Amino acid sequence: MAMVRLLMSLATIAMVFGFAIAANHTVGAPNGGWNQNTDLKTWAASETFVVGDSLVFTYTPNHDVLEVNKADYDSCQTTNAISTNGGGMTVISLSSTGKRYFICGTGGHCASGMKLEVNTLATVPPPIVAPAISPAKSPVSAPSPKNAPKVSPVSSPSPKSSAPSPKIAPKISPAKSPVASSPSPITVEAPTLPPPADVVPTASPTSPSQPSSADKISVVASSSVGFGIVAMIFFM
């Protein structure tokens, strides 16, 4: 018994929920209606029809609503209509999936565009979510010339400003160099070095030279002195 009550409660909730989510589609709204001036094909393409929804036709007395098959829809044939509705307002329940076709039965209205094709879906399709694309990291760009700090070039001194002009430069007389007598060179005689001990003077092969007069005088003086010394010793 409790199970039956539970099932009945769930069915009631489902019915209430189904009625709550059902939508009523006023044909041609909000900027038009069921007439010859509304672009009904574009309006139908902008709507989503689901099982449980309803179509609401509002129109003037010179129009009506005929449900027809695909062939009569294409040829605007009104003699074989599935259902005919009038009175200024018609509500059509969309109780099953598939396509359904409606036209106006007034002569010439269907041919002028007063016709509607509806495709009923079982459920509302989920919205298409585009994949999120993370922005690519841009490389660090070098500062643009506009943002880069301006570096003023170092100006080199102008030759005109650094070097005095020949016209303005003072005249400098050349300095007189003093006349200095150069000292006479001093001659330094190098001392005579004795010959090395291990060097034996080589006798000249030539014949001995005759003694000079100075040598003779020296020998005589030496002999006289010697003789005098001997004489003194003898007399003592």
Provide structural commentary:
With 236 residues, this protein is α/β, with parallel strands linked by helices. Helices cover 25% and strands 15% of the residues. It has five helices and eight strands. A five-stranded mixed beta sheet has the order 2-8-7-4-5. A three-stranded mixed beta sheet has the order 1-3-6, with no helix packed on it.
In round numbers, the mean pLDDT is 72
Elements, N to C (H/E):
HEHEEEHEEEEHH
Secondary structure category: alpha/beta
Global morphology: rod-shaped
- Read across the widest sheet, the strand sequence of neighbours is 2-8-7-4-5
Proportion of beta-strand residues? 5-15%
Largest sheet: 5 strands, mixed
- Helical amount among residues, as a percent range? 25-40%
| CA-CA gap between termini | 198 Å
Query: What is the count of DSSP helices, taking H or I runs of 4+ residues?
Result: 5
Regions with little confidence, pLDDT below 50 for 5+ residues: 14-20, 161-166, 177-183, 198-209
Strand elements, count: 8
* Rg, alpha carbons: 73 Å
